[in-house]
Specification:
Layout lengths: L8 H13 L14 H12 L10 E6 L2 H20 L3 H8 L11 E7 L17 H19 L2 E5 L5 H7 L7 E10 L8 H4 L24
Antiparallel strand pairs: 1-2, 2-4, 3-4
Helix pairs in contact: 2-5
This protein binds flavin mononucleotide.
The site of flavin mononucleotide has 11 residues, from loops.
Length: 222
């Protein structure tokens, strides 16, 4: 039944290493474009993710055009000014010092969409939880993010964007839902800890505080 041999110790360690050393990357992108076959492997990793009812609802737009990236960067700037306005005092100061995108530095960007209206999968699993179509696309993104880390490719997720403006710019039809806008490229290196931790915005939650057994417990909640 199982056509594959078990993973050996080194392979298991590689899986956990990729998970531990994946980072959201916004700086240090190299100018070298990603070769076509490498982009193909990353997209294939995304495309082989689990999906509800096997509907495979994820759609991808590879964006290399500088003019389009510049326009996306402008959409980011506008949203980021509004985000900054929502903070005050020391927090606003800290926010304004954060680097939260690499749209122009990364030679390619990737827009990830979900076709929630797709009939594929015949609605299996979606009658009770329609949101699982979006979850399936998020699984695809995480597959790509981990594969990219293995390939030495940095990925940064940018959500500080007005979805309507972005969808208009990229000619996205109404039946597709924007899930992610990613910046992708070879990088100088991967930081040991999240940027938001490094620059004092937030700290990692201790695993013990988020796990309950048998019934939900607030005992150690963060
Ligand atoms: C749904 C989602 C949206 C995100 N949006 C942004 C963003 O707009 N800008 C940014 O700099 N990072 C963004 N991130 C990255 C997170 O800040 C990052 O994952 C988190 O700080 C942990 O760091 P790590 O990914 O390096 O472990 C996003 C991550 C996720 C999962």
């Amino acid at each position: 039944m199982n056509p594959h041999p078990p993973f050996n110790k080194a392979e298991r360690e590689a899986v956990y290493r990729v998970i531990a050393e994946r980072r959201d990357v916004r700086r240090g992108f190299l100018d070298t474009p990603l070769p076509e076959d490498l982009i193909g492997r990353l997209l294939a990793a995304a495309h082989s993710a689990p999906s509800v009812g096997f509907m495979q609802p994820s759609r991808f737009i590879v964006i290399r055009d500088y003019g389009i990236r510049k326009a996306v960067r402008q959409i980011f700037e506008e949203a980021n000014v509004r985000a900054l306005d929502s903070f005050s005092g020391e927090q606003a100061e800290r926010y304004s010092g954060l680097k939260l995108e690499g749209i122009l530095e990364a030679p390619q960007n990737l827009c990830v969409l979900c076709d929630r209206a797709s009939e594929r999968g015949h609605g299996l699993g979606r009658q009770t939880m329609p949101e699982t179509a979006i979850y399936s696309t998020v699984c695809a993104i995480q597959n790509l993010w981990l594969a990219a880390r293995g390939e030495g490719v940095g990925v940064g997720w940018v959500s500080i964007l007005d979805p309507t403006k972005l969808c208009n710019l990229l000619n996205i039809p109404d039946h597709l839902t924007l899930v992610a806008y990613l910046c992708l490229g070879f990088v100088e290196g991967f930081a040991a800890e999240p940027d938001l931790e490094r620059f004092g915005w937030e700290r990692r939650v201790d695993l013990k505080t988020v796990v309950s057994y048998d019934r939900y417990s607030e005992e150690h909640a963060p």
